[in-house]
Amino acid sequence: MAEFLIKDEDLASLKGEVVIVTGASSGIGLATVQLLLSLGANVVGADIQPPAEPIDSSAAFTFQQTDVTVWSDLVSLFKRTKQLHGRVDHVFANAGISPRADYLSTELDENGDLKEPTHRVLDTNTKGVINTTTLAIYHMRHQPEPLGGSVTITSSIAGVQRFRAVDYTASKHAVLGFMRGLKPVLAYEKVPVRINALAPSWTRTGVVPEVIMKQLGVELQTPLTVGRAAAALMADKKRDGHLVHVERGRYKEIEEAVLLPAYKDRILGDGVELEDTTLMRMMEAMGGVYKDKV
Fold this sequence. Notes:
Elements: E1 2-4, E2 18-22, H1 27-38, E3 42-47, E4 61-65, H2 71-85, E5 90-93, H3 120-140, E6 149-154, H4 166-188, E7 193-200, H5 210-215, H6 223-235, E8 243-247, E9 250-253, H7 255-268, H8 275-285
Parallel strand pairs: 2-3, 2-5, 3-4, 5-6, 6-7, 7-8
Antiparallel strand pairs: 1-9, 8-9
Helix pairs in contact: 1-6, 2-3, 3-4
């Protein structure tokens, strides 16, 4: 398992870089903003509400009120960032909300029919990340030299296992699948954008009841612990398509070090081609485009 350390000097290259952070006003997002500013980065923080803690007025920070479920808000976010700084080097697609849906509900509407479950979590945690990433790629591949940049997505330990917060778990599996699907496309099309994801364990974000967790003997990690992982994925240009598990200061890359090898070796077995390789060859044979029957 590829466990690694994050040293302060590993993050030094972020000085002067332009970073967009969504969900920037609290929790992991706010801790990451504060870390980036301490490193000398230029940060545009996006959230529905301003930061929960005051930001040093001398720091290179701009708050942009943004609802990540609204496309026009995200368009404005990127436009504002380009107007202020001329480019976007890194995006931390971090905005997310806690579980909301009850899929065992018996609540009926005025007609006596079962009410549709809420999709707020999926809209925020999945659609918001997908749209943020889409805009990031568009701007990064069309900006002045040097082209490119990086996108870091906040998934969760809920995205790699069974986890009974159903809509939250579905959203975190979804964004991890989005990263996994997008990585080979970016490489094949030679788009100079790296994409990585985080899978934090229990974190002190205000969502988890700290008193109860303490009674249960569960130690919560600090948001800054996760923020350092986000910054490391931005700074290290060798990291691409990685999934970093974060648990109380221990950082482990688990996508290429654990999950992919397990699939190749223990499920597919020797001599069997990866399905993605087959899909690539099929698309090339079809002229590189999806057909109606695919």
